[in-house]
């Protein structure tokens, strides 16, 4: 029986990609149950499949999540950070599984997601692609191997000019992986860019640098700089399909799971062999 999926943020770039991937069966076993966005979204009440540039879905773009959320198996959410926090209590009450790819969540909004995960299964990740989640694993392993050997960690991320949050959710995932390997608290060592006269780089620091321009889908590089050598681990996304396919794989995986907060590492263990 197909997993019934609601796409939240359906009028956005990622929302349309998700709908197209469902309709083109890039991930088997899914059915588009609903497509939801804000009341002023372009194309409201039109067929969501047609809006996404694929075949008709027989599901129209609507603005009321309550019409489709309670009867869905999974909500895949690429909306906005305000929407995530606002929807958390009712998604929890419905008990609908929730895959969240929205980035830029602050501590209060993450707390709302954590509260929802006490009542329903939630997958939260700054990046849904298989490659990035494998890269996070490799970064943690590398940092653990280089711990206390004098290697400085810097993270450079590049995205299109329309991206709103910085550093990217993916960059923060990679920074957390490096911090875990070094046994550091990321919040204590994170530095976002440098300007003026910041002085010499301290031993315990992870730097983040954001580049914005053009239509860059997403490039990330973790630099581990030692004396006499430089190690770089990189990932380049050339299509949003990789994020959509990962999110939909997570949707298949999380449907029916017990209530708790999961990561993409949990969802992809069987794929990555971790």
From TrEMBL:
| Residues annotated to bind NAD(+) | 9-14, 101-103, 125-128
Keyword Oxidoreductase (UniProt): yes
The record, for PROSITE patterns, names: DAPB
Task: State its Enzyme Commission number(s).
Answer: 1.17.1.8
- Report the locations given in the UniProt record: Cytoplasm
Q: Which residues bind (S)-2,3,4,5-tetrahydrodipicolinate?
A: 160, 169-170
Q: Where is the active site?
A: 159 (proton donor/acceptor), 163 (proton donor)
* Residue spans crossing the bilayer: none
- InterPro entries in alphabetical order: DapB_C, DapB_N, DapB_N_CS, DHDPR_bac, NAD(P)-bd_dom_sf
Gene3D superfamilies, per this entry?
Dihydrodipicolinate Reductase, domain 2, NAD(P)-binding Rossmann-like Domain
Q: Does the record's keyword annotation contain Protein biosynthesis?
A: no
Question: Subunit arrangement?
Answer: Homotetramer.
Q: Which UniProt keywords apply?
A: Amino-acid biosynthesis, Cytoplasm, Diaminopimelate biosynthesis, Lysine biosynthesis, NAD, NADP, Oxidoreductase
Per its UniProt entry, what is the enzyme's top EC class, as one word? oxidoreductase
Q: According to its UniProt entry, what is the function of this protein?
A: Catalyzes the conversion of 4-hydroxy-tetrahydrodipicolinate (HTPA) to tetrahydrodipicolinate.
Residue ranges of every copy of the Dihydrodipicolinate reductase N-terminal domain listed in the record: 3-128
Q: Which reaction does it catalyse?
A: (S)-2,3,4,5-tetrahydrodipicolinate + NADP(+) + H2O = (2S,4S)-4-hydroxy-2,3,4,5-tetrahydrodipicolinate + NADPH + H(+); (S)-2,3,4,5-tetrahydrodipicolinate + NAD(+) + H2O = (2S,4S)-4-hydroxy-2,3,4,5-tetrahydrodipicolinate + NADH + H(+)
Which GO biological process annotations does it have?
diaminopimelate biosynthetic process; lysine biosynthetic process via diaminopimelate
Record-level GO cellular component terms: cytosol
A GO term, aspect molecular function: NADP binding
CDD domains in alphabetical order = DHDPR_N (cd02274)
Give, as in the UniProt entry, the pathway in which the protein acts.
Amino-acid biosynthesis; L-lysine biosynthesis via DAP pathway; (S)-tetrahydrodipicolinate from L-aspartate: step 4/4
| The name this protein goes by in its record | 4-hydroxy-tetrahydrodipicolinate reductase
Q: Which residues form the Dihydrodipicolinate reductase C-terminal domain?
A: 131-267
Q: Which family does it belong to?
A: Belongs to the DapB family.
């Amino acid at each position: 029986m197909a997993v019934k999926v609601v796409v939240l943020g359906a009028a956005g770039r990622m929302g349309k990609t998700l709908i197209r991937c469902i309709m083109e069966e890039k991930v088997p076993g899914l059915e588009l149950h609903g497509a939801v966005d804000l009341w002023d979204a372009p194309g409201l009440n039109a067929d969501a499949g047609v809006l996404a540039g694929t075949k008709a879905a027989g599901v129209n773009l609507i603005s009321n999540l309550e019409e489709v959320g309670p009867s869905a198996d999974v909500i895949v959410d690429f909306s906005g950070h305000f929407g995530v926090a606002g929807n958390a209590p009712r998604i929890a009450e419905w008990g609908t599984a929730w895959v969240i790819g929205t980035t830029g969540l602050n501590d209060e909004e993450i707390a709302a997601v954590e509260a929802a995960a006490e009542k329903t299964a939630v997958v939260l990740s700054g990046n849904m692609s298989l490659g990035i989640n494998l890269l996070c694993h490799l970064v943690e392993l590398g940092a653990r191997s280089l711990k206390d050997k004098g290697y400085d960690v810097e993270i450079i991320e590049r995205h299109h000019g329309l991206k709103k949050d910085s550093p990217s959710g993916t960059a923060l995932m990679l920074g957390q992986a490096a911090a875990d390997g070094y046994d550091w608290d990321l919040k204590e060592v994170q530095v976002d860019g440098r300007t003026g006269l910041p002085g010499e780089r301290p031993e315990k620091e992870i730097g983040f640098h954001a580049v914005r321009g053009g239509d860059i889908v997403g490039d990330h590089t973790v630099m581990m700089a030692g004396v006499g050598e430089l190690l770089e681990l990189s990932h380049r996304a050339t299509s949003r399909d990789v994020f959509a396919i990962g999110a939909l794989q997570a949707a298949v995986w999380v449907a029916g799971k017990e209530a708790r907060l999961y990561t993409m590492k949990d969802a992809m263990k069987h794929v990555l062999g971790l």
